[in-house]
Each structure stands twice: as structure tokens, then as C-alpha cells.
Write a structure and sequence with these properties.
The complex is a heterodimer of chains A (about 130) and B (about 210).
Chain A lengths: L1 H38 L2 H11 L1 H9 L14 H53 L1
Helix pairs in contact in A: 1-4, 2-3, 2-4, 3-4
Chain B lengths: L4 E2 L5 E11 L2 E10 L3 E8 L3 E5 L3 E6 L4 E6 L8 E2 L2 H10 L3 E8 L2 E7 L6 E7 L2 E8 L5 E8 L2 E4 L2 E3 L2 E7 L4 E15 L5 H4 L8 E5 L3
Parallel strand pairs in B: 7-18
Antiparallel strand pairs in B: 1-8, 2-3, 2-17, 3-4, 4-5, 5-6, 6-7, 9-10, 10-11, 11-12, 12-13, 13-16, 14-15, 16-17
The chains are: A mainly alpha (about 130), B mainly beta (about 210).
């Protein structure tokens, strides 16, 4: 019983800083995601996807958003490492998602315009045949 | 922000100490600015950290751990003094903003500029020819950023510097306020600026991480 208690006490002493560190880095990632959502111009990337199609989607994937320097001031090195990675990942995900949405909307519009043309042609041919 | 900045002769730097208060708590340290070129912050509280702002890179160095980050970044910091309203006006026009009108509100002159393409509106507040604040509005007319310069004084010929900058950024759900308070601001010759601020050379045994070049 004493061994178990001692083991638990030792584990808590060792684990406590690890848990604090894990919480801090988790907080960095959550904060980075929130900041990326706030900073990334979704409308711009949607327009890029709409007007430039796959090129716009490619650009959204390649161009990395830059993390705001002010958010890194006074933060630990672990926080900076996690924050910058999470910010870039989250920012890029938003950019790509928005660009794909724009691309799909443009595609759907094209398809529906094409379908309308086809229907009109079929209708015209049907009328001519009668 | 860069539109409102003035420059010093090449051989001079601006230095002082600062305290930044924001939603994340308080950060304090010293700053060295070579306006328009580089800004160096030596953060001493809550952690020892040196931040070097260059036009395309943000360098963050932790002397205690000898850990170094090179982060690709195009962010600029408030890196200069504040111009007179005439120069601010000229620069805004050069950026495509059109002067819409002005009015007096008490002792403050309010000048309104609008960008014909982006529809962004900038309102410049001037007092005795010095810019004491500005507001930016999105195309829908909602205020996005509100910056107030307090205690603006001339520290070199035509080069003004505030003792306090209050920045309020309005988001969709909340408004964040950050306050920079500056102390003992003075102009220094290059020779009085520490080596790490003038030309930072990382120690050979520093652990370097590149972010944005991968």
C-alpha cells in the first residue's frame, strides 16, 4: 500500500509539469486556430477558387499565412513552436476550404449553364421536329 | 500604420523601455528602432526573449535556452515616430486614398479619407498638426481598428513619439485592446546601440528552427 501511495506521489510530482506544459501547448494551438480563423480572408480565397479554379486552390495550399508577431511576444519557445505550426496549418486549411468552395460553386454554375443550354437546344430541336 | 511613420537620419536609433498590456497579460522590455529598417525588442518579463523584426523575417531568440526561430513574416511593427498631419495626408493620397473632408471637434481636427476601390475609410485625428489617432472602417462602415497615440512629443527634429499607444481591434465576437506604454524614449547614435540590436549574430551552438521555409 505504501509503495502504491509513494508511486502515485512520485508520478504526480513528475507528471504535474508535463501536464502544465501539455495544457500550455494545447492552449497555443487553440489560440492559433482562433486567430487564423479571424485573420484569414475567406472571401478572398473563395474568389480565388471561383475565378481561377484549381489554380486558386493550388495557391491556397502553397501560400502560407504568417502568424501575427504580437501574439508571440512574451511567450515561451514551446508556445512559439506550437503556435506557428498550428496557425499555418489552420490558416492553410481555411484558405483551401474556401478556395474549393469557390471552385465548386463556379463548377456548379458552369454545369447548370451547360445543362440549361442543352435543355434549350433539345427543346428547340423537339419543336423543329414537330 | 506605416503611412503615419516618419524617418530619422540613418545614423540614429530610437530606444526606450515598454510595457505591453493585453488580453494575454503584461509583457515588458526594451526596444531599439532603426525606423523603416529594423525593430528589436528585448523582452525581459515574463520570459527573456529577443525579437528582431526585419522586412521579411521575424527572428525570435531565447538566450537562456539558446533557441532561435526564423519565422517568415511580412508583419511590420509600429516602427517609427509619428508624422505631421501634412505628411500623413500626402502618404494616404499616394496610397490611393481620397480626401473626403474635415471638421473640427473641439481642439481636434478630424480628416476623412476613402479608398475608391476598396471602400475602406480612414479617419485621421490631429491636434496642433500632430497625428493623435486614427480609425479604419470596413466597406460596411463598421469600425475595425481604433488607434490612439497619447502624450505625443517631439524627440528629434520633426520626429514625434507617443508615450502611450492604445490599439483596439474589433472582431466578429469581441474587441481586443492592447496598450503599449513607452518610458525613457530617446534618440541614440548607432554606436550606443547594443551589438545584438544592430547586427544579430546567433551563437554557434544555438538550436535553430526555421518556420515558413519548409
Amino acid at each position: 500500500m505504501r509503495v502504491l501511495a509513494l508511486s502515485l506521489a512520485t508520478a504526480s510530482v513528475i507528471a504535474a509539469p508535463v501536464m502544465v506544459s501539455a495544457q500550455s501547448t494545447q492552449r497555443a494551438c487553440v489560440q492559433a486556430q482562433a486567430d487564423a480563423e479571424h485573420d484569414v480572408n475567406g472571401l478572398l480565397w473563395m474568389a480565388a477558387g471561383f475565378f481561377f479554379g484549381l489554380l486558386g486552390v493550388g495557391a491556397a495550399y502553397v501560400i502560407e499565412p504568417t502568424p501575427p508577431a504580437m501574439k508571440l511576444m512574451g511567450k515561451s519557445s514551446e508556445y512559439v513552436a506550437v503556435y506557428t505550426d498550428c496557425y499555418k496549418r489552420a490558416g492553410r486549411d481555411i484558405q483551401v476550404k474556401k478556395a474549393i468552395t469557390g471552385c465548386v460553386v463556379a463548377g456548379l454554375l458552369e454545369v447548370s449553364a451547360y445543362a440549361c443550354c442543352c435543355l434549350l437546344n433539345v427543346g428547340a430541336l423537339g419543336a423543329a421536329a414537330q | 500604420m506605416m503611412l503615419l511613420l516618419a524617418n530619422l537620419p540613418d545614423t540614429l536609433w530610437v530606444s526606450g523601455s515598454f510595457v505591453k498590456d493585453g488580453p494575454d497579460g503584461s509583457v515588458a522590455g526594451y526596444f531599439y528602432m532603426h525606423p523603416g529598417e529594423r525593430t528589436v525588442l528585448n523582452v525581459v518579463r515574463p520570459i527573456h526573449q529577443i525579437m528582431i523584426f526585419r522586412p521579411d523575417t521575424l527572428i525570435i531568440y531565447y538566450p537562456d535556452e539558446k533557441r532561435l526561430f526564423y519565422i517568415r513574416s511580412n508583419h511590420t511593427l509600429f516602427s517609427g515616430g509619428i508624422q505631421s498631419s501634412q505628411i500623413g495626408d500626402k502618404n494616404l493620397k499616394r496610397m490611393g486614398f481620397m480626401f473626403v473632408g474635415d471638421e473640427r471637434k473641439g481642439d481636434t481636427t478630424v480628416k476623412v479619407y476613402k479608398h475608391p476601390d476598396t471602400k475602406i475609410k480612414v479617419v485621421l485625428l490631429t491636434l496642433s498638426g500632430k497625428v493623435v489617432g486614427f480609425r479604419t472602417y470596413d466597406p460596411n462602415g463598421s469600425e475595425v481598428v481604433r488607434v490612439d497615440f497619447e502624450g505625443v512629443r517631439e524627440i528629434y527634429r520633426g520626429f514625434n513619439f507617443p508615450s502611450k499607444v492604445v490599439i483596439r481591434m474589433k472582431g466578429e465576437s469581441k474587441t481586443e485592446t492592447e496598450t503599449f506604454t513607452y518610458y525613457s524614449v530617446r534618440v541614440l547614435p548607432s554606436s550606443s546601440v547594443p551589438d545584438y540590436a544592430r547586427s544579430f549574430k546567433p551563437p554557434k551552438d544555438a538550436r535553430i528552427t526555421y518556420k515558413g521555409w519548409d
